[in-house]
Amino acid sequence: MNGYNSKTIFKKVFIIKRFSAKQIAAQAGVGLATVDRVLNNRGNVHAQTVDKVHKAIEELEGQYQVNQIKGRTFYFDLLMDTPARFSEQVKSAILAVIPEMASYKIRFRFRFFENISTEEMAKEILNTDRKQCQGLIIKASNLPEIRECIDKLSKKMPVVTVVTDLPESKRVAYIGLDNYSAGQTAAFLLGNWLPTSQAQVLSVTSSEAFHGEEQRQAGFLDGIAAYPHLSVIRISGGQGLANSTEKHVISACSYYKDQIRGVYSIGGGNRAILNGLRYIGVKSPIFIGHDLDAENTFLLKKRYIDAVIDHKLADDARAAIQFLLNSYRKTPLISAYQSSINVITPFSLPPRATAAKR
Question: HTH lacI-type domain spans which residues (predicted)?
């Protein structure tokens, strides 16, 4: 039976009956007689031609599945545990790409939290099912309670993680940077930009619970090991929020204020980091941040920071929506996606960002 069970054979026969031999021949670029020989196993057909006919049937089935859901309304939720400056960026990216999905009516609901507890986030995830929702895009901490809720929800709808992954959960895809490589990139920049004298560099995360920040930190520490004159001061717990981040920097760095020469800001709050360093007397460190939001655009323009590791949120938003739709198309349009790492300096700001005001 060539490895097919009866259910598989029935499915293949059903799909073939959905399309005429003329349609299959046109899609494959072969003659009707060839299609007839392939479908009826009459032999005398080159293996490559047989594969071409089978591939044509798969392509027709994919197009059929897409057409079946055209015009359908989908309600998707975006749930994020992140500072408002970043959640608003993601929201803008989502709204910008929705018109591209003109074949479908897509409605998004946005649920943003700056400092939500694990218990509250777990409830928010499970409540998604009560909101007439067909899919969830989420940024959340990588904790067992959160993964358990994702697994429960995934039985009823597709879930996609963005920015930071939940790799042991049953989400259908992670959309975002290779965060380990992003950390290595930051280490490369600092290692080459700083003098070869002994110095301290800060590595600042918002929380140790986010997998993406954990991966950035790991890549940075591995990368900075190639520069033995640099030692790392690790700071965490500010949640990327201004007051708490500034306090953490002041508390952790006062003793090392004369040795600090560089900063890698993994979790954001860059203005707060700079304020904390200025408070203890550290001036003009080489500073690498993440994400080209309004705050970082201003800091780059003023040369308060030196580079931002960025990626195109619109591309991420588009991919996230397509992965959710894949679950309803049955035949995916994309099967994998990873954001490109872009290093933005004061001299490579995009035109719109260059025009940004304080």
Answer: 22-60
Measured CA to CA, the distance from residue 179 to residue 165 in angstroms comes to 10
Q: Span 179-310: which CATH code?
A: 3.40.50.2300
Q: Is the pLDDT of residue 237 over 50?
A: yes
Domain range annotation of the chain: 6-68, 73-176+313-341, 179-310
List the CATH code of the domain at 6-68. 1.10.260
Q: What are phi and psi of 114, to 5 degrees?
A: -90, -30
Instruction: Name the nearest CA neighbour of 84 among 265, 315, 240, 310.
Output: 240
Q: How far apart are CA 321 and CA 329, in angstroms?
A: 12
Distance CA 173, CA 189 (A): 30
Report which of 294, 300, 295 is spatially closest to residue 343, judged by C-alpha positions.
Answer: 300
Rg value, the chain, Cα:
25
Measuring CA to CA, which residue among 297, 230, 226 is closest to residue 263?
Answer: 230
Question: What 3-state DSSP class applies to 224?
Answer: helix
Segment 24-75, tens digit of pLDDT? 887 778 888 898 888 888 888 888 888 888 888 877 776 665 555 556 788 8
The DSSP output letter for 255 is G
Domain 73-176+313-341 fold is Rossmann fold (3.40.50)
